[in-house]
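Supplementary Methods, section 5.1.

A reviewer requested that the exact input to the structure prediction be made available. We therefore reproduce it here, unchanged from the version used in the analyses.
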Amino acid sequence: MEYNFHWNTVFRKMPELLDGVFVTFHVSVLAMLIGVVIAILLAITKMNNSKPFCYVATVWVEIARNTPALFQIYMAYFGLGALGIHLSPYVAVLSALVFINAGYLTETFRGGFSSIPDTQFRASRSLGMSSVQAYRYIILPQMLRRIYHPMTNQFVWSILMSSLGILVGMSELSGTTQKLQSQSFRTLEFFIVAAVLYFVLTKLVLFGASLLSRRLFKGDIG
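The structure derived from this sequence is encoded token-by-token as follows.
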């Protein structure tokens, strides 16, 4: 069986594919930033053992870590839609990725916090720092250094999982690829190029994260 590749069709549509790459990167960055903030709050909540809030944090983590990403996206888009809360595809995917990122990173952050001796927090308090100052200036910088690589891996996961946005009509890279190939019937060529773009994007993210770690932590992270 012979197959004739027609790459010119794909290359003519490269600007649209790159627009899809931008949407993929944009939603992944936002989901990561918001997820990190929520995860830090959930991790501190779980460590403080405040019963009502600890229960909410535990339920969040268990649902996020033990249900498929597709389920979260469907619930945000179709589930809330059935209740009269209609989200755009972008907001639905963003909300789902934030929910999942926060759930996974909560346990990562809790492990990072637990690895720091309690004596450092007590010493900070004895020097006149408030609890917020102790976490901000003493605990958080050390914790972030120790969980930097898992955070980077979670960011790459967000980039790849954003491809599920195709199922709710989001025009990220996969959605754009699906639309263009349906117009030209060059399925193989478009999805090969899309795979290459995903590969390049994730490699650039990992390279940028490596450079950033060297700048922030002065070579402490290998």
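The chain has a mean pLDDT of 89. These observations are discussed further in the main text.
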